[in-house]
Amino acid sequence: MNKLSNREIALSFFDLVVTGKVREWYNKHTDNDYIHHNQYFKSDRESLILSIEEDASNNPEKQVEVKMSLEDGDLVTTYSHVKQNPDDPGFALMHIFRFVDSRIVEMWDINQEILEDSPNKNGMF
């Protein structure tokens, strides 16, 4: 069986987030001492998993399109367009995953609303 690269593990996160199967992913790919830096949720792993599962249930048409991913040593960064439904302009989302021995030990996520009337003609992507 071929071992997934850190980048492949990070990218697989988004498929399971959309389908609500994030618990399966966390159990397989995160360390027991995993920590996250999402300021909207309690710092424990279970609180974040529950919130992602609830969001998937509440937004069955959610779409995540990874626009870019970079790997540098033990870090993988992704830059994505997230839409709760097809009509939603959505938001830009960046994740930074830190790995030790092919398991995620730490994750950061940063998001920014997409403005419909932005003066920047290049847009977020």
Supply the number of structural domains. Answer: 1
CATH architectural label: Roll
Relative strand content: 35-45%
Strand order of the largest sheet: 1-5-4-3-2
What is the averaged pLDDT score?
92
Tell me the series of helices and strands, N- to C-terminal: HHEHEEEE
Number of strands: 5
Largest sheet, described in full? 5 strands, mixed
Query: What would you call the shape?
Result: globular
Q: Rounded to an integer, what's the Rg over CA atoms?
A: 15 Å
Q: What is the CATH T-level topology?
A: Nuclear Transport Factor 2, Chain: A
Determine the number of helices (DSSP H or I, runs of at least 4 residues). Answer: 3
Low-confidence stretches: none
Task: Give the distance, in angstroms, between the N- and C-terminal Cα atoms.
Answer: 36 Å
- By CATH reckoning, the class would read Alpha Beta
Counting helices, strands and paired strands, the structural category is alpha+beta
Could you estimate the helical fraction of the residues in percent?
A: 25-40%
Walkthrough of the structure:
This protein has helices spanning 6-19, 22-29, 45-58, and strands spanning 30-36, 63-72, 75-83, 91-100, 103-113. The chain is of the alpha+beta class and 125 residues long. It has a single domain, classed as Roll (Nuclear Transport Factor 2, Chain: A), CATH 3.10.450. The model has no long low-confidence stretch (mean pLDDT 92).
